[in-house]
Amino acid sequence: DCSGLVAYVYREMLDLRLPRTSRDLAAVQGPKIDPQRLATGDLVFFGSRGSVTHVGIYVGEGRFVHAPSTGGTVRLDSLSGPYWKDHYTGAKRVLR
């Protein structure tokens, strides 16, 4: 699932342990990032009605990588896609 992918990438590539749910990832300390200032590696969050339900990793050029569902294929999508644009809740930088 989405948070599992994020936790795996950060653990395997950077030896950084992150929480295992999208909601807990959104609560991780780190600066909130303006959408125009996103950098590779920033976490991007999605949800509705104030609740975070999905997370991905920003990879540049307005795109992010994520796992849409448990057991599903990892995907590369655009933040400007209709669904993602409507459900974007913010971003955090956990890398320094």
What does this structure look like?
The protein has 96 residues and is α+β, with helices and mostly antiparallel strands. It has a single domain (2-92), classed as endopeptidase domain like (from Nostoc punctiforme) (endopeptidase fold (from Nostoc punctiforme), Alpha-Beta Complex), CATH 3.90.1720. It contains 3 helices and 5 strands; from the N terminus they run H-H-E-E-E-E-H-E. It has helices at 2-14, 22-26, 82-87; strands at 43-48, 51-60, 63-66, 75-78, 88-92. A 5-stranded antiparallel beta sheet has the order 4-3-2-1-5. Strand 2 and strand 3 (63-66) form a beta hairpin. It is globular, with a radius of gyration of 12 Å. The N and C termini lie far apart (25 Å). The mean pLDDT is 94.
Secondary structure layout:
Elements: H1 2-14, H2 22-26, E1 43-48, E2 51-60, E3 63-66, E4 75-78, H3 82-87, E5 88-92
